[in-house]
Design brief:
alpha+beta; Chorismate lyase; seven-stranded antiparallel sheet; 6 helices
Length: about 190
């Protein structure tokens, strides 16, 4: 297999296509806010910002964000932690052509959740989820491994989604760490209120 193909992921429209374990599929297919679900499944939810700066987008991101080839983007990477444990490595890219009017809060997020702004802004249009099994050579796999000291043989599954606001696009990729499977299912109120 060529080294270039190891650095790209094959993105699919269906979670079943990537061979994820059954226990992980509900996390991958979560249609609501992942932040809300993680908050409900833990006592303390925290966003740990690893960095936010300009960078070259990944090869398998360029077309998704409307670029002919990899170019400069605003990049943000965070760990989503539940009760101190990292459960998701999140990677976001925004084309440099986006303006502050397109994504007014992006530069000021700090350690706040991006999801909490995306799901509550009526101007944000969410695209379809795509799913991938990350290979050892994929940059996000390498970054997650470096940030967390994961074993080389760890298999990680990811999803991504394109968001649009005004004329801007924003691509969020969430890499699910094995520790997410230890989270309890969120409690739902099953009482009928009439």
């Amino acid at each position: 297999m060529r080294a270039g193909t190891l650095r790209q992921a094959r993105w699919h429209r269906h979670a079943l296509a990537i061979g994820a374990p059954p226990a992980l599929r509900s996390w991958l297919r979560e249609s609501g806010s992942l932040t809300a679900r993680l908050t409900a499944a833990s006592t303390v939810f925290r966003v740990q910002r690893l960095h936010q700066h300009t960078a070259l987008c990944l090869r398998d991101e360029a077309a998704a964000i409307g670029m002919r080839r990899p170019g400069r983007v605003w990049e943000r990477e965070v760990l989503l932690r539940c009760d101190g444990e990292a459960v998701v490595f999140a990677h976001t890219v925004v084309p440099m052509s986006a303006t502050a009017a397109d994504w007014p809060l992006f530069n000021a997020l700090g350690e706040r959740s991006l999801g909490s702004t995306l799901f509550y802004d009526p101007r944000v249009v969410r695209g379809e989820l795509e799913f991938a099994r990350l290979r050892a050579g994929h940059p996000l796999m390498q970054r997650a491994r470096a940030a967390l000291g994961l074993d080389e043989n760890t298999v990680l599954f990811a999803r991504r989604c394109l968001y649009r606001r005004r004329r801007g696009t924003l691509l969020v990729t969430e890499v699910f760490l094995p520790s997410v499977l230890a989270l309890a299912a969120p409690r739902h109120n099953t009482t009928n209120i009439k």
